[in-house]
């Protein structure tokens, strides 16, 4: 078997709110935004990793169980590569301006002077890490 592409499917409570948040962060829309499709989709990074955000009630039947309660746990954390410490800082400011939550402020990671990053959650609690490796 040969896998052609991998993408993420995440649940959200409000498509329009999600669309606005990720558009403010500069994510590239994957097609036209339409509430009728019951999802909003973005292409992330140079390889254009696809992230679909489905309305929770639309995604749940295909999940084979309950959707994670992100107020009481975690599902996955995506990492975004940054080219500099300054870019990590810019991401942190953009997230705050867009209404997201920084759960880890920009900082040196684990005492390694070459690693710098921050962590944020979107409006539904999906977690992202912005990471710079200065080596």
Automatic annotation (TrEMBL):
Entry superkingdom: Bacteria
Family annotation (Pfam families)? Glyoxalase
> Per the database record, which ranges form the VOC domain?
4-133
User: What InterPro entries does the entry give?
Assistant: Glyas_Bleomycin-R_OHBP_Dase, Glyas_Fos-R_dOase_dom, VOC_core
Annotated protein name in UniProt: VOC family protein
């Amino acid at each position: 078997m040969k896998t052609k592409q991998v993408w993420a499917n995440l649940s959200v409570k409000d498509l329009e709110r999600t669309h606005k948040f990720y558009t403010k962060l500069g994510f590239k829309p994957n097609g036209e935004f339409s509430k009728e499709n019951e999802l909003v989709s973005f292409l992330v990074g140079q390889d254009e990793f696809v992230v679909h955000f489905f309305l929770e009630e639309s995604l749940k039947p295909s999940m084979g169980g309950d959707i994670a309660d992100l107020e009481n746990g975690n599902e996955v954390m995506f990492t975004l590569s940054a080219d500099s410490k300054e870019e990590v800082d810019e991401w942190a400011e953009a997230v705050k301006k867009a209404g997201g939550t920084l759960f880890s402020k920009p900082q040196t990671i684990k005492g390694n002077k070459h690693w710098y990053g921050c962590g944020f959650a979107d409006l539904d609690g999906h977690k992202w890490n912005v990471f710079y490796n200065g080596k």
